[in-house]
Amino acid sequence: MPSEVAEARVRDGFRAALPLLPGPVLFGLSFGVFASTAGLNAVAAIVMSATTFAGSAQFAATTVIHDGGTAATAILAAGLLNARYIGMSISVASIFPGSRPRRLVESQLIVDESWALSGRSGRFQWPILFGAGLLFYVVWVSSTAVGALVGSTLANPESLGLDAAFAALFLALAAPYIRGRRAVTASLLAAAITLVLLPVAPPGVPFIAAAAACLLGLRR
Amino acid sequence: MSTAWVVIVVVGVASILFKAAGPVFLGRRDLPPRMVAVVSLIGPVMLTALVVTQTVGGDQEIVLDARLPGVAAAAIVVRRGAPVAVAMLVAAVVTGTIRLVT
């Protein structure tokens, strides 16, 4: 069949992911360093990257731990950020081949970048998602490990301005999403909620409360 | 088990289930459009809240220190299309320098 000739291969997924690799490398290193400054040891940071495999949720949960918030607050913060994966996962549900256990394992390779790359051609393609996701996974876990080991040797990361660099990281990640009036309004509302609650609410709670700004999406 | 490990295990399991939701549990189904609109705002909203927390957050207080000018400088270069690494470097240099001289 001629249409089969154009079918993507896992190799194509690797190739598509290559130009994006600096992102996960930098993000993974940052998470490793941040985790060690928040008191997580290298094993904890690596286990988190290997199981959660979602940078912003990992940063959010670790921020709450770092600020002395409860486990429930940290879990809720990460859960809210990762809720988008339910939507992404459903959107690619039909492209995963094989048995249920195999789909369970391979679905873990769904991450923002692999999902976006796999849908570039207009329909989602499993080989692209698998190839790109696998490369991102390996890079993510190994750069977390390097970051955690480097971070544990830093005497005073704050003096290097690393705390501001982490904030800048999220600013740069958020920027592409804050397009259009609704996203701008929702982001400003989230910032306002966080600012108002920071002095009065327990650690991590302002962050979770800010999620209420997502409800602006219900407006038509 | 420490707080950190409780968080790591629960968040890890939840993430695994979230990602498996489609291919393993649901099969072909779409989210209602209004849900999609809400979910699409989670990224910008939560990342913004994280930026605010990391920039002016303290021990149950708002702390205005060397982080703010660093993040502001990063915002300017991001606005001009700088890549993530440059934004991080600018923030670290500005904040680190202010801490060094004050």
Describe this structure in words.
The complex is a heterodimer of chains A (about 220) and B (about 100). With about 220 residues, chain A is mostly helical. Chain A has 13 helices and no strands. In chain A, helix 2 packs across helix 10, helix 3 runs parallel beside helix 5 and helix 4 packs antiparallel against helix 10. The longest helix of chain A has 28 residues. Chain A starts with a helix and ends in an 11-residue tail after the last helix. With about 100 residues, chain B is an all-alpha fold. Chain B has four helices and no strands. The mean pLDDT of chain B is about 90. Classes of the chains: A mainly alpha (about 220), B mainly alpha (about 100). At the A-B interface, helix 3, helix 4, helix 5, helix 6 and helix 7 of A face helix 1, helix 2, helix 3 and helix 4 of B.
Helices and strands, with pairings:
The complex is a heterodimer of chains A (220) and B (102).
Chain A: H1 2-5, H2 10-17, H3 22-37, H4 42-52, H5 55-66, H6 71-82, H7 84-91, H8 100-107, H9 112-118, H10 126-153, H11 162-174, H12 181-197, H13 205-209
Helix pairs in contact in A: 2-10, 3-4, 3-5, 3-10, 4-10, 5-6, 9-10
Chain B: H1 3-26, H2 33-56, H3 67-79, H4 84-101
Helix pairs in contact in B: 3-4
